[in-house]
TrEMBL record:
Homodimer. Binds to stalled ribosomes, contacting rRNA. NCBIfam families: mutS2. GO terms for molecular function: ATP binding; ATP hydrolysis activity; ATP-dependent DNA damage sensor activity; endonuclease activity; mismatched DNA binding; ribosomal large subunit binding; rRNA binding. The gene is mutS2. This is Endonuclease MutS2. InterPro entries: DNA_mismatch_repair_MutS_C, DNA_mismatch_repair_MutS_core, DNA_mismatch_repair_MutS_sf, MSSS, MutS, MutS2, P-loop_NTPase, Smr_dom. Its EC number is 3.1.-.-, 3.6.4.-. Keywords: ATP-binding, Coiled coil, DNA-binding, Endonuclease, Hydrolase, Nuclease, Nucleotide-binding, RNA-binding, rRNA-binding. Residues 711-786 form the Smr domain. Acts as a ribosome collision sensor, splitting the ribosome into its 2 subunits. Detects stalled/collided 70S ribosomes which it binds and splits by an ATP-hydrolysis driven conformational change. Acts upstream of the ribosome quality control system (RQC), a ribosome-associated complex that mediates the extraction of incompletely synthesized nascent chains from stalled ribosomes and their subsequent degradation. Probably generates substrates for RQC. Residues 525-602 form a coiled coil.
Amino acid sequence: MIAERALRTLEFYKIRDEVAKYCTSSLGKAKIDELLPSTDINEVNRLLEEMDEGAQVLRVKGNVPMGGIFDIRMHAKRAQIGGSLSPMELMEVSSTIRASRILRQFFEGIREEGDIQIPHFLEKKESMPILTALEHDINMCIDDNGGVLDSASSTLRTIRQQLRAQESRVRERLESLIRGKNASKMLSDSIVTIRNDRYVIPVKQEYRSHYGGIVHDQSSSGQTLFIEPDAVVQANNEVRRLKMKEKEEIDRILQMLSAQVQEVAHELFELVEVLGEIDLILAKAKYGSAKKCSKPEMNTEGYINLRKARHPLIPIDEVVANDIEFGRDVTAIVITGPNTGGKTVTLKTVGLFTLMAQAGLPIPALDGSELAVFDQVFADIGDEQSIEQSLSTFSSHMVNIVDILTKFDEHSLVIFDELGAGTDPQEGAALAISLLDEVHGRGARVIATTHYPELKAYAYNRPGVENASVEFDVETLSPTYRLLIGVPGRSNAFEISKRLGLPEHIIKHAQSFTGTDRREVDSMIASLEKSRRESERDAEQSKELLEQAEHLKKDLEEQLKQYENQKEKLEEKAKEKARKIVEQATREAEGVMSELRKMQMDQASSIKEHQLIDAKKRLEAAMPENRVLKKAAKANQTRELKPNDEVKVISFGQKGTLVEKVSANEWIVQIGILKMKLPETDLQYTKPEKQKETRTMATLKKRDSHVKLELDLRGERYEDAIVRVEKYIDDALLSNYHQVSIIHGKGTGALRQGVQQYLKKHPRVKSYRFGEAGEGGSGVTVAELK
């Protein structure tokens, strides 16, 4: 356990008071009052992890529902010994149970969402007793203001109904008296009021006998008497009787509810404990957010590495952040230099951060900071003069130091402020060196301050000891409070005197009294400080350049992201435009092809040349805007195109057959009865459709021909079917077939009519007929070719 003196000296209790301001309940504040540093690293890590979970929840959710929580421990204790709780106390019990239920639902919601991991909060959620039955029973009887509801029992409801009716009758009787003849003359005011829990009217003193009855009160002047007239005495007695019955029933209800609280008193104590712990965790997290703190890493090796550490009790706009690292190769730091430079603040920062972290509190330092868990922290800081014990400052310090020497070990952090001060400088410096050797030699981590120049050389002669100082700006004649590790402090008396106007010859004369070694050491320290400042300036410039580069990189990445997004949108827009163009072109092409087929079916002979030319022009007019699909068509090409291949013309959405290639990228394509020259990028190879095998009816079959003796059109659209019939008849004629079969099915008859109409007008079709019974009947048309 950490010594009380260190907790007080390092101002740990002040930090506790600051954290308590962020609690939302008295339970959390009670937990803060019990908060002390732990020396078990597992417990310390758990406390810090809990705090970090709280910080994550607050960052993601903004707040945690902690309202309605009361310290109900005394209520539960009184119920345990058979006491009856008041309605307000029962309401606080119910409110606390309801708050825990809402909190459980809140944490369960976070678990289901899965955005953050909160194992410690979920563990606490599971440890909260579920007391919904008690909450329900109390809510049925007690309202939010601590009043007992009519619904608490049927008996209470009946009594109150009777009471309201009786009170109404009393008021009506009194109001009739107020409205009576000459009442305004005899009454001080025309109102019905209550005195001693009985209904009365205000009567002027001189008319007291007119109403008779009982005087319950009088005004301060004595001119008005509050009289209960004889006419309502019995009615008022009934009101009083009903009120007594009401109180008896309410007492019974409260005793019943208190007995239920007694049954779960132990669970209520557990619930209060968990709620207080959660409030404490969230208060730590809120404190950390307000003070810009971070969660430190912890170790048991005595290693301390604080990055931009700020003392938490100094206003954030005034405090100077420092880097402090020691505990591995260097296990002791000696800070030298004049007073009022900020040495003590540095000591307290290291000690206080250690206590805070071991209590599970975040520290005001950058991420990546690390602290050690010590078994003990000892601090000898400040003016410890004891009037009561007649001890001087030196003696008081020495009493404390002697106590420290009897208790510390290698797992301790020891802090000395102005070691050896308050006595003869030479003897004080010697004692300081001896004490540092003792504490450092026994393995403790030690950080000490001194203004003795003799200790400047101490670190150079002791392995594991490092010099440090607090920077002093001779230009402004004030300390900067920046810690300089590795640079011993020096007196700036000559520089300050010179700045303040002391004559140069006096300064030189004073310097002659200092030894040569002293001047050389001071010169060396000054050179070290100058080199340090230059190095830090260069590092700061490098840091700024790095930050600028990172910002530039971030900006470029953002611009690239915006460009990619814009590019995607433009591509989508272009694709949509292209799709619409293709659809329009396809509709136009289908229209043209449909007109051609109709003309062909309406005319026995071939279509006139000018009609074909006009159709070609209309088809070509639909093509130019579809060049945007060239790349897509090329990418979709499955193999090299050859004559007689069936292809799809992308621009028109029509099928055709390749006749011949007329240039590197152009083909003559047969589309129905039209032949057109089209670019290869507008053509897409399609596999020939497989035909279903049926019994052939042809009398002649060309042995090596790929053209079948039948054409199956079942399932085809009308327009596509006629196009296939046209090509099929041409291919059959080229194969010297004399008879072919066209399967169109029975259906509605539309396809059969279209096929036969086409065959009727074709000049090379000799005749056609329906199939015989064995050939497919009316679902097949057999054509005889010339």
